[in-house]
């Protein structure tokens, strides 16, 4: 789990495909992927 967290952070910082919401937050492609995977794992 700790490895997954580090891997996620690395992907977030190195991913250059980014959407910005009102200049307050950035959503990367990998972040969206991680959220959907996490959601599927909860089910």
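Q: What amino acid sequence fits the structure above?
A:
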């Amino acid at each position: 789990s700790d490895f997954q967290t580090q891997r996620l952070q690395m992907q977030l910082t190195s991913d250059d495909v980014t959407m910005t919401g009102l200049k307050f937050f950035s959503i990367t492609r990998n972040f969206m992927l991680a959220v959907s995977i996490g959601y599927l794992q909860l089910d």
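Q: And what stands out in the fold?
A: Residues 33 and 39 are 10 Å apart (CA to CA).
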